[in-house]
Amino acid sequence: MVACIQGGNTITKKVRVDASETDIEGAIKWEISQQVLGSLDEFRMDYQEIMHSPPLDNAREFLVVACRSEYVDVLYACSAG
Fold first, then answer.
1. Is the CATH code 3.30.420.380 the one for domain 7-80?
2. What does DSSP assign to residue 55?
3. Is the pTM for the entire model greater than 0.85?
């Protein structure tokens, strides 16, 4: 399924994480939790690493998108019929 959610209902952010960080997902979740109103449990989130050439010094960068679960759930319900 491919769907679109209006940009005003999403949070999109570039997040830099120290290259030595072993818990990438935890670091990203913490950073995004500082940006949202309410609990991060109310959101669906996905991220993708941004590859740089040349690589960043001592850091990795990720593009993160988060959206309230209620918007995603409505899309799933519509696609189910």
1. yes
2. P
3. no
